[in-house]
Amino acid sequence: MDKEHRMLEARLLQAKGLTQKEIAETIGKSERTVRYYLKEMPRPRKNPVRGSKVDPFKAMINQILEENPSYNSEILFERISKIGYTGKISVMKDYVAQIRKQMAIQAVMRFETEPARQAQVDWKEFGKQVVDGIEKKLYAFVMVLGYSRKAFVRFTTRMDQATLVACHNLAFEYFGGVPHEILYDNMRTAFTWDEEGVFKPTVWLLALAIHYDFLPKRCRVRRPETKGKVERTIGYLGNNFWPRMDGGALSLETLNTDVISWLSSIDEKPLSGFTESRSERFTREKPLLKTLPAERFDARHEIPLGVNRESMICYETNRYSVPPELIGHLVTLKVDALSREAEIFGPKGSLRRFTLKPAGVRQRVFFPEDRELLRRRWAHDRQAIGRRRVPRRRLSLTRQIDVEVRSPAAYAIFAEEPEVRISL
């Protein structure tokens, strides 16, 4: 046994509580040799740790970079300077670069969410397509439950806030409940910057979250792994479902009917990496979803419109009649972004519901009840004009106007003044 092994053995025996004499007897060496083996090796000299002016602000910087790793350093420097940072910006930038490097190399660990805990939302864009005979951009709203991977898909031709919120209504009704939290990508219709440069939910999304009692969360920038479940579903939608539709005549209604059938079929297939299907896992997840409220969230656009002299309002170049008593007043038109069902509200509440005509066709829609009311009003107005006494126009008599006649002597004062000419 060489010297290094004996020295290691001696240290191990010392760690067990043996005395130097007992160690010497065990390894067959003298106590002097054992004392030499156990002599503490010289330690490297440590440099004193000096504090940095950025230390009190590291927790704040870490939180901001966690939300947005690409947060502007100049704005970050201004923010911490307002609350007491007196160091140089270069010191802060060095620390920021260090944190960003750690975040870049940090391994992303896969985790499984518990049932009903989380859902993930994103859009799939299909570019310009001829839908219902008109070329327009086509999108698909996708929501995936994190535990069961059960998905909901809705094809739309818009991607605005009203459409996003309306798709949530349909998704919750499709699942029969609401997850505790929903994770969103970097979409402007869901999150916006506030004055301090922090992302916050939009007014529409916040109102929706309060109505259904869920927590809206935004995934980390440049970290698509955090919403991998919806990303994989979107990829499968484009590779498996869309090729079946591409090349034929597209209809929005047919697309949404077919995609629900397609989702039902894949729900019965075993999940990759699991021995269960989406349907089997959803059986355990559905009872844990939050109960739907009694009423659906009102996700309709609200458009104030004036009523013209013909008792009509104009929307998307089309005209729709309203009761003639509202001529000259403002009414509110509420439009569903998905079904294009509309409802008109006057000062006394709802007036009627109807389906909007296609935008840009310049049609006039006169509801029969409005036409009869307008005919009665016209007849009443004509009778009122006929009963009204029109006064005769009085002719003004010519009156004699007294004119003061001046004598020639009154103008003598102008005779001595020279003539003034103005050149133009």
What does this structure look like?
This protein has helices at 3-15, 20-27, 31-38, 58-67, 73-82, 89-105, 161-175, 203-212, 228-245, 252-266, 278-285, 368-387; strands at residues 118-131, 134-145, 151-156, 181-184, 191-193, 199-201, 215-218, 301-306, 312-315, 318-321, 330-335, 341-346, 349-355, 364-365. The protein is α+β, with helices and mostly antiparallel strands. It has a five-stranded mixed sheet with strand order 3-2-1-4-7, sandwiched between helices. A four-stranded antiparallel sheet has the order 8-11-12-13, with no helix packed on it. Helix 1 (3-15) crosses helix 2 (20-27) and helix 2 (20-27) packs across helix 3 (31-38). Mean pLDDT is 83; it is low at 417-424.
Assembly form of the protein: single chain
Radius of gyration, rounded? 41 Å
Number of helices: 12
- Based on CA inertia axes, which overall geometry fits? elongated
Look at the helices and sheets and give the structural class: alpha+beta
The helix/strand series, from N terminus to C terminus, equals HHHHHHEEEHEEEHEHHHEEEEEEEH
CATH names the topology of the largest domain as Nucleotidyltransferase, domain 5
Number of strands: 14
Main beta-sheet annotation:
5 strands, mixed
| CATH architect. name of the largest domain | 2-Layer Sandwich
Features:
single chain, 424 residues, alpha+beta, 5-stranded mixed beta sheet, 4-stranded antiparallel beta sheet, 12 helices, disordered C terminus
Which SSEs are present, and which pair or pack?
Elements: H1 3-15, H2 20-27, H3 31-38, H4 58-67, H5 73-82, H6 89-105, E1 118-131, E2 134-145, E3 151-156, H7 161-175, E4 181-184, E5 191-193, E6 199-201, H8 203-212, E7 215-218, H9 228-245, H10 252-266, H11 278-285, E8 301-306, E9 312-315, E10 318-321, E11 330-335, E12 341-346, E13 349-355, E14 364-365, H12 368-387
Parallel strand pairs: 1-4, 4-7, 10-14
Antiparallel strand pairs: 1-2, 2-3, 5-6, 8-11, 9-10, 11-12, 12-13
Helix pairs in contact: 1-2, 2-3, 4-6
